[in-house]
Amino acid sequence: MGSDHQFVLNQFYSSTSKKEDLVMSITLKEFCERPDLRKIIMDQYSASIQAEAEDVTGAYIAGWLGSLTAAFTHLRMFHEESMNIDLGAIEMEFYPSNHHTNYFLHFHYDIQPSESKPTFEQFFSCTITPVLKAIEEESRIRLDYLWKLVIPGIFWAEKSWVKHDIFSKLQDQIEETINEIHALPPEVFSLKKNPYLHEFVELENPWDPEGKLWRKPVCCLAYKTANHGYCYTCPRMKPADRAEKYHQIREQLKEKKEA
Q: Where do the Ferric siderophore reductase C-terminal domain residues begin and end (predicted)?
C-alpha cells in the first residue's frame, strides 16, 4: 500500500524535503564521527531550550529520534519505497518554532527502492544506536535511559495509525510489525533487554477524558529547563500531584471555553 510522505512529515517531523528556515543542520554521520561539530550543535540547541545542564540537551535529541523511528516504521509498513538508513543520508535539521523560543527538530531522509528495504535490526543497530552512543558520550546519560526516551515514538505512532481509517484497516499488519520489533534481540540496541518490551502505564487524560494517555517510561528532563516543571505524564510526578494537575488542567480548559 502506498502512503503519503506528507503524513510522515505532519506526524513524525521527518520528510524527503529539506526545511527552508533552518537554523543549523548536521548529518547523523557527522553527529557520530565529528565531536567538534556535535558539541557546536548541542550547545546551540541547549541555549534554545534554556537547558540547565548538558544532559537535558541529550535527552531532548533522543526524544526527537523517536519521531525518526516512527517515520521509518511507517514507511516500511505502508510505502513501496523505504528510508535510506545510511548515517550520511539522514540529516538533523533544527528550525525555529512559531510558538516557542526553542528550536524544533526535523529529519531529512532519502528514499530507496523497495527491493533494498532495510530491516528493523539494521535500522536500530546501524542508525539509531550509534547516534544514541554519541549522545551518551556528550551528555553522560546512560544508553538504556536514552533508549527509553526513544521508544514512545513508535508506541504513539501505533495509536495514531489505529485512529486513521486507512491504517486501522491494516490492524493485523500493524500488530505483526510491533511483534517483530518486540522479538528483536537486545544486542540490536546494545542493551541487556529489548527496550520496546516496556509496558506503558495508562493515565487519565485531562485534555480528553474519553481519550487515552500514557506515562512516559522515563523523565524527559524538561523540568531542568526555564519555567518548566514536571510533565503531566512524567514518571517522577507523584499520584497526588498528578491528580491535582489533572483538575487544574480541567478547570483551565473550562475557563477557556467559557471565555
A: 218-236
